[in-house]
Design a protein that fits this description.
Shape: globular
Distance between the termini: 39 Å
Helix content: 40-55%
Radius of gyration: 22 Å
Largest sheet: 7 strands, parallel
Number of strands: 9
Order of helices and strands: HEHHHHHHHEEHHHEHHEEHEHEHEHHH
Length: 454
């Protein structure tokens, strides 16, 4: 990987190397395994670290026709590694090609050349390095200069499990709260020792658990609003619906939607009262292949992009949340469909708060869109439809430790895009202003969020 990858002029190179490259990383949304972090997991080999836990790689392998046994099946680790190395040269244009090179360079100081580097040598050399000191889960993350990271945890998880891991606190994944199940109710009763006999007792239990997450350092929540999401305002009958749910009645789609909408609005109030940031990941089409669901599980890397979001539903939800006693929490909107970018960026001017910059805003290019093309689209959209200086920048949303190189990829992409704007005369700014913009987007803005600073 060349030193000036994605940095095609002097301004871009200065912005990255002098202003962005050495900034600490704040990763406010990811799916790292908290047990691995807490236990200081060591990795058996490079496939164990690099391939087996990464659905992005699994998806690319499937597209290339690889049999599932070499992806999530029973093939040996070396076999899975060899298959991955075999398809990697053909991934030019896909961000996995660049990420893989960066991952090998930043963690192992190896100049990976897909199709040229000997796979057997790479297997042996990375295996040797992984057995040395400093290559457990936390040691690997420390090599990325991670100042703060926030792995997702369920409301039924123990938020204190990360207490012994400096710089890591939980992010509350709220889907199981909103999408009611008897299993979640029973687990909450076991954890708290309190019976849940009504909607009000459920809300009391949630307040208690959210407070425990807050005490453990949680500053971010996350909700998946999948393809077809629709919001309903409160009609006053949700207590009755919850009672019917407790009695074992299978609620129809209309009743479930109304109850879920009520619970989302309730949680928004709890988040706002604690100055959390609420992340809404919108538009994934999760039901695609039944075959892959059975083979790889729900997070197997085969979800698709859904239809455009209902602007009427989204704005009605945000408006109702804003009218809560605690007001609207800070909100980051992550649309999976790029056609929704402008819609959501414009909402930064619809829900505002004195003293808070970027109260509601478009998030970074997410999931299938977090490549150079998708990032450039978001940069252009935020700059054109909102205010670029308030943008919160990158987060990985990943299960892989090595995916933290995506912060470097993002910073290179941003500095490359910004430098081009400057040198072609579109942006007129002093070096001091440019440096401030880059450092705000890549670090300062999100740091204020996790510190709950106004």
């Amino acid at each position: 990987m060349k030193e000036n990858f994605l940095l095609n002029n002097q301004t871009s190179q200065w912005l990255f190397h002098e202003c962005a490259e050495n900034l600490p990383i704040i990763d406010f949304h990811n799916h790292l395994n908290v047990q691995d972090l807490a236990a200081g997991r060591k990795y058996n080999n490079i496939a164990d670290l690099w391939i087996k836990c990464d659905p992005y790689k699994h998806r690319a392998m499937r597209i290339c026709g690889v049999d599932e046994s070499y992806i999530t099946g029973n093939a040996g680790d070396k076999e899975k590694f060899d298959v991955w190395m075999g398809i990697l040269p053909g991934l030019m244009g896909n961000p996995l090609y660049d990420w893989s090179i960066l991952e090998m360079k930043r963690i192992f100081q190896i100049d990976l050349r897909p199709g040229i580097t000997d796979p057997d040598w790479l297997w042996q050399e990375t295996g040797r390095i992984l057995q040395t000191a400093g290559y457990d889960a936390l040691g690997i993350l420390s090599k990325f200069n991670v100042e703060y990271a926030s792995p997702c945890m369920e409301i039924t998880d123990d938020p204190k499990v990360l207490n012994s891991t400096p710089n890591f606190t939980p992010s509350l994944r709220g889907d199981s709260i909103v999408n009611l199940s008897a299993g979640t109710i029973h687990m909450l009763e076991n954890i708290t020792g309190k019976r849940i006999i009504s909607l009000e007792s459920y809300l009391d239990t949630l307040r208690e658990r959210v407070s425990e997450f807050d005490a453990a350092g949680c500053r971010f929540s996350d909700h998946a609003l999948d393809n077809g999401f629709f919001y309903d305002s409160d009609d006053g009958n949700n207590g009755k619906r919850f009672d019917e749910f407790l009695q074992g009645r299978l609620l129809d789609e209309n009743d479930r939607r109304k109850l879920s909408s009520f619970l989302l609005r309730f949680l928004a109030q709890e988040y706002a009262s604690r100055k959390w940031t609420m992340q809404l990941h919108i538009g994934a089409q999760r039901r695609t292949s039944t075959r892959l669901l059975k083979a790889a599980g729900p997070a197997g890397g085969f979800a698709g992009i859904g239809n455009c979001c209902s602007a009427e539903s989204l704005t009605r939800m945000l408006d109702d949340m804003e009218q809560n006693p605690s007001g609207l929490p800070s909100v980051i909107l992550f649309p999976l469909n790029p056609a929704d970018n402008a819609l959501m960026a414009v909402l930064s001017g619809s829900y505002t708060e004195a003293g808070t910059a970027g109260k509601v805003q478009l998030g970074t290019a997410w999931w299938w869109c977090d490549h150079l093309f998708g990032m450039h689209q978001v940069f252009e959209t935020v700059a054109s439809f909102s205010v670029l200086s308030t943008f919160l920048g990158m987060t990985t949303d990943s299960r892989s430790l090595l995916s933290f190189v995506r912060h470097e990829y993002f910073r290179r992409a941003f500095c490359g895009w910004l430098g081009k704007k400057v040198e072609c005369g579109e942006f007129l700014a002093s070096p001091e202003q440019l440096k401030q913009l880059v450092q705000d987007v890549c670090y300062n803005n999100v740091k204020k969020r996790y510190l709950r600073a106004e």
